[in-house]
Design goal:
heterodimer; A: 174 residues; alpha+beta; four-stranded antiparallel beta sheet; 8% strand; B: 523 residues; Cholesterol Oxidase, domain 2; 17 strands; binds flavin-adenine dinucleotide; binds iron/sulfur cluster; oxidoreductase (chain B); FAD (chain B)
C-alpha cells in the first residue's frame, strides 16, 4: 500500500485557485497549465505541461467526483512533479496516449465521453504506472481535509466536545 | 515511583510487549509485589497525544516495521506489507481497539468436541473451560468497566446503531443491543464517560475507553515494582545449558544491544512478533526455535472470519458520529451447522472516516461504481462481521530470511488461506448483513473484504498435550518452564467473539499463577 502523506499548504505561486468549476485542463504557456476557465493554474517544474494536464484528467477519471473541483486532483498528483518522478510519469502518460491512439483518438485528452477514457484506462490498469497513480490518489485525494466537507465528513470532533450534544443520535427517519 | 532495575538483576520477570496481554500481566504482577521489567518496542502516547485524524494517527501508533505476506487472502494482494493493523506503543493495540468485550460461549472452549473434526482444520479443545474462566472473566470485566456487566448501564445508541437495530428487529433478530463495551457510559474508575467523538480507533482522547496505556501501566509503575522500557525492541531470548531461559537481548532506544537478565520471561508481542521472537531465538540446543519441540510455533494463525457490509440509504445516516463500534447482533453467534458451517459470527456496527473508507471499502477499485459510493458517504451505514475461523497447520508465521527489519532481524512472513468453512460463513454473514440493511430501505449494499488483520491469534497455541501446541493451561511453554506466552497467540481456537476480554482474563489468571509459583519457589 502506498502511504503518501497528505499534501497540504500550497503556496500561491504553486497554485492559484479561484472558482470551483471543473473543466478540461489547458496548457497556457511554457511550464504552465490552467483550466480553461482559470479555475486553477499550476506551474510545473519537471513535468511537461501537456503531460501534467493529462495526468490530472487521468486522476479524475480514476476517482471521478463531480463535486470535487480540479484543484484537488492537481494537489493530489503534484507530488510527481519532481526530478525523480517526472521521467516515469512521462513514460506512463506516453503509454496512455498510445492506448488512446490505438482506439482512434489523437490523444487521451482528445476523447469525448468519460467511457472512452475509462476503456483506455482499463486497458492499462494492470501496469505499474496506473497502479502507482491510483494508489497514490487514495491518500493524495481523500486525505485532503478540504475535500471532506464535500462528502459531508466532519473530521476532528474532540475540540468541539464530540457529538454527545451535536447529533450522534439525530436520525429522524426510521 | 516507577522502578529501575539493573540489567544484571536476574530476579525480575521480563515481559515483552505491553498490550492487552503484557500490559495487564505487568500490572497484575507488580500489584502482587513481583518485580517486572517490561520491554516495549513502541513509544508512550497518552490521550493528550492522540489525534482525531485517521492517517495521522495511523502514522503515530501503527506497527510499520516490515512484514511480508503470502497465501490466497486478499490482504496479501492489496496490503502486502501490512498483514495486520496493530499498534506499536506502550499499551499496545488497546490504544486502537474499539472496546467490544465479550466472553466466549461455553461450547467454544471445546471446539473439537463440539464441532467434530473438520477436514483441513487443526481443531483442538482448550485445556481450560468456561467454569474455570468464569471468575477471571469477572475480574476482567471489572477492570475494563464493561457495560452491561456489574450493573453498568449500556451506552446510548448512535445513528449507525439505531438504523442497524431497526433492521435487525425487522429481520426477527432478538439479541440486539449497544454491546458490552469497555467504554464508560458514566464515569468509572476515575475515567470520563464517552463523549461520542467517534475516533475510538485513533486512541480515546477522553480516556473513556479502557486502554492499558493509561490504566494498568501507570498503576503498575506506581507500585514501584514495574519498570517499562520504551522503544526497547526484544531481539532474542537466551538460555542456559539446562535449557532454562536466562534473559532477553534487546535493542534500546539508541540502537544499542542490551541484555536484561531474568528469572522468568513472558512473551506478549501479539501473534506475529511473539512466534517471530521464539523462532529468531533458535540456538544449537533448540535449532527450530524456543518452545518449538512440537513444531507448532507460528502455526494455526487465526484472524477471525471477517468482512464488512456497508449500505447507502436515501436519507442521511452520518455513521461516523459516536462510538466506532456502537452495537451488536448476536443471533448468528450460535453453533448451528444447518447454516452450512461450524461455529458462529457476531455482527457489530462499524464506521470509518472518509480517508479510511477510501482505502478499505473495496481496495484497488476505481471508477464510478466506487466513487458514487463515497459520494453517498453521509447516507451510509456500516457493520463489521466477526466469526470463528478454522485453525490450519499451513496458516502460519515463518521467518523471511530475505527481508530484514531495521535491526537486521529476519521479518515475519504471514501466510493465510481461507478455509472453506471461513468462506461459507463469510458468505452467510454478507447475506444476513445485507438483509439487515435492506429491511430499512438500503439503496445499495457493499460486501467489503476483510481489512488487514486486527485480531491476530493462535500462533503459540495452548494444548493439554505437549505434542499439540506450544503452551500449557497457564500459558507456560511445554518445553521451558520459565518461558511463558501471555498474549492472543495462546489461543487454541478463536471463538466468534472479539478476543481482548479473554486475553485480559488469561493475563490476570497467569499473573496469579506465576506469583504463586514464584512464592513456592517452583519457578
Ligand atoms: C482497529 C482495531 C479495533 C479492535 N477492536 C477490538 C474490539 O472491539 N474488541 C476486542 O476484543 N479486540 C479488538 N481489537 C483487537 C485487540 O486490540 C487485540 O486483540 C489486543 O490488543 C491484542 O493483545 P496482545 O497483547 O496480543 O497484543 P498487542 O495489544 O498488540 O500488544 C503487543 C505489544 O507488543 C509490542 N511488541 C511486539 N514485538 C515486540 C518486541 N520484539 N519487543 C518489544 N515489544 C514488542 C508491540 O509494540 C505492542 O505494543 C481491535 C484491534 C484493532 C487494530
Ligand atoms: S466515541 Fe467515546 S470511546 Fe470512542 S473515542 Fe470518543 S469518547 Fe472515546
Amino acid at each position: 500500500m502506498t502511504l503518501q502523506p497528505a499534501i497540504r499548504g500550497l503556496t500561491r505561486r504553486q497554485l492559484l485557485s479561484r472558482a470551483s468549476a471543473a473543466g478540461a485542463s489547458l496548457v497556457v504557456g511554457a511550464g504552465f497549465v490552467a483550466a480553461p476557465d482559470a479555475a486553477w493554474a499550476y506551474e510545473t517544474s519537471h513535468i511537461a505541461p501537456e503531460t501534467f494536464a493529462t495526468l490530472v484528467r487521468m486522476a479524475r477519471d480514476i476517482y471521478p467526483h463531480d463535486r470535487i473541483p480540479d484543484t484537488h486532483y492537481v494537489i493530489a498528483v503534484k507530488g510527481y512533479d519532481s526530478a525523480e518522478s517526472a521521467p516515469g510519469i512521462a513514460e506512463g502518460i506516453a503509454a496512455l496516449d498510445a492506448a488512446a491512439q490505438a482506439r482512434g483518438f489523437a490523444s487521451y485528452l482528445d476523447t469525448g465521453w468519460e467511457r472512452d477514457r475509462v476503456d483506455i484506462l482499463r486497458s492499462i490498469e494492470d501496469s505499474a504506472f496506473f497502479q502507482q497513480v491510483r494508489g497514490g490518489l487514495v491518500t493524495g485525494l481523500y486525505n485532503q481535509k478540504a475535500v471532506w466537507p464535500i462528502f459531508g465528513y466532519e473530521g476532528e470532533s474532540y475540540s468541539r466536545g464530540g457529538y454527545i450534544e451535536r447529533g450522534f443520535n439525530d436520525i429522524d427517519w426510521l | 515511583m516507577a522502578a529501575s532495575f539493573e540489567l544484571t538483576d536476574d530476579s525480575v520477570v521480563v515481559i515483552i510487549g505491553t498490550g492487552a496481554g503484557g500490559g495487564v500481566l505487568a500490572n497484575e504482577l507488580a500489584q502482587k509485589g513481583v518485580r517486572v521489567v517490561a520491554l516495549e518496542a513502541g513509544g508512550r502516547y497518552l490521550p493528550e497525544d492522540y489525534v482525531n485524524d485517521e492517517w495521522e494517527s495511523f502514522g503515530q501508533l501503527a506497527w510499520l516495521d516490515p512484514r511480508t505476506t503470502s497465501g490466497d487472502w486478499r490482504v496479501a494482494k492489496d496490503f502486502s506489507g501490512l498483514p495486520a493493523w496493530i499498534v506499536k506503543a506502550v499499551g499496545g493495540t488497546t490504544t486502537h481497539w474499539a472496546g467490544a468485550s465479550l466472553r466466549f460461549q461455553d461450547h467454544e472452549w471445546k471446539a473439537l468436541t463440539t464441532y467434530g473434526a473438520v477436514e483441513g482444520a487443526n481443531l483442538l479443545d482448550w485445556p481450560i473451560d468456561a467454569a474455570e474462566m468464569d471468575p477471571w472473566y469477572d475480574l476482567a470485566e471489572k477492570k475494563l468497566g464493561v457495560t452491561r456487566t456489574n450493573g453498568i448501564a449500556g451506552l446510548p445508541g448512535n445513528n449507525n446503531y439505531l438504523l442497524f437495530e431497526r433492521g435487525a428487529k425487522a429481520l426477527g433478530y432478538t439479541q440486539v443491543h449497544t454491546g458490552r463495551m469497555a467504554i464508560n457510559s458514566a464515569e468509572y474508575d476515575g475515567r470520563s464517560f464517552c463523549h461520542q467523538t467517534g475516533f475510538c480507533f485513533q486512541g480515546c482522547k477522553w480516556g473513556a475507553k479502557w486502554s492499558a496505556a493509561y490504566t494498568d501501566i501507570p498503576r503498575g509503575e506506581a507500585t514501584g515494582n514495574l519498570e517499562v522500557r520504551e522503544r526497547a525492541h526484544a531481539a532474542r531470548i537466551l538460555h542456559d545449558d539446562a535449557g532454562k531461559v536466562t534473559g532477553v537481548e534487546y535493542f534500546d532506544r539508541d540502537g544499542n544491544l542490551q541484555f536484561q537478565r531474568a528469572r522468568i520471561v513472558c512473551v506478549a508481542g501479539n501473534s506475529f512478533e511473539s512466534p517471530r521472537l521464539l523462532l529468531n531465538s533458535a540456538s544449537a540446543m533448540f535449532p527450530d526455535g524456543l518452545a518449538n519441540s512440537s513444531g507448532q510455533v507460528g502455526r494455526n494463525y487465526m484472524r477471525h472470519m471477517t468482512g464488512s457490509v456497508y449500505a447507502t440509504f436515501d436519507k442521511p445516516v452520518r455513521m461516523w458520529r459516536g462510538t466506532t463500534m456502537a452495537g451488536i447482533i448476536s443471533d448468528e453467534a450460535r453453533h448451528d451447522p444447518g447454516r452450512g458451517f461450524v461455529g458462529g459470527y457476531e455482527m457489530e456496527t462499524l464506521a470509518l472516516g472518509i480517508p479510511f473508507m477510501a482505502a478499505f471499502l473495496d481496495p484497488g477499485a476505481w471508477g464510478r461504481e466506487f466513487t458514487t459510493a463515497l459520494d453517498a458517504y453521509e447516507y451510509m451505514a456500516g457493520m463489521w462481521l466477526v466469526g470463528e475461523d478454522m485453525p490450519q497447520d499451513t496458516n502460519r508465521v515463518t521467518l523471511n530470511a530475505d527481508v530484514k527489519d531495521q535491526w537486521g532481524l529476519p521479518v515475519a512472513n504471514v501466510h493465510f488461506d481461507d478455509h472453506p468453512n471461513d468462506i461459507a460463513m463469510r458468505n452467510h454473514a454478507y447475506r444476513q448483513g445485507r438483509a439487515v440493511y435492506e429491511a430499512v430501505g438500503a439503496t445499495r449494499t457493499f460486501p467489503t473484504p476483510p481489512y488487514p488483520s486486527t485480531h491476530n491469534l493462535g500462533t503459540n497455541r495452548m494444548s493439554e498435550r505437549p505434542g499439540d501446541g506450544v503452551v500449557n493451561r497457564w500459558g507456560q511453554s511445554h518445553d521451558i518452564p520459565n518461558l511463558f506466552v501471555s498474549d492472543g497467540s495462546q489461543f487454541t481456537t478463536g471463538a466468534a467473539e472479539n478476543p481482548t476480554l479473554t486475553i485480559v482474563a488469561l493475563a490476570i489468571r497467569q499473573a496469579d499463577h506465576i506469583a504463586r509459583e514464584m512464592a513456592a519457589q517452583t519457578l
